[in-house]
Amino acid sequence: MTWSELFPLGDSGPMPDPTMVAFYSGATGIECLVAGLFFLRFWRRTGERLFIAFAFAFWLLGANAALPSLLGRPAQMHGEVYLLRLAAFLLIILAIVGKNLKGRRRP
Description:
Elements: H1 3-6, H2 18-46, H3 49-71, H4 82-105
Helix pairs in contact: 2-3, 3-4
């Protein structure tokens, strides 16, 4: 049984232009890649694990944006792509919690 059989698509109105969807997905992917590179630069300067976690999280979000267009099907047909978004947000949450717990341990 496939994802689309479990959750069939209803009438969602007019379909967007595939060219525009690919353009915006690519733009979002590039923006996330650049944001990740900025956090990587901050990590290299400071050595803070928070920055490297943010870099990886943004790269996962960029992959989440670009993969549906690269696969040639809407994101609704690839529910597993959303696991990348979940992993990115969990990474951000764990990095922030780790940073806050590390700050409390110091006298």
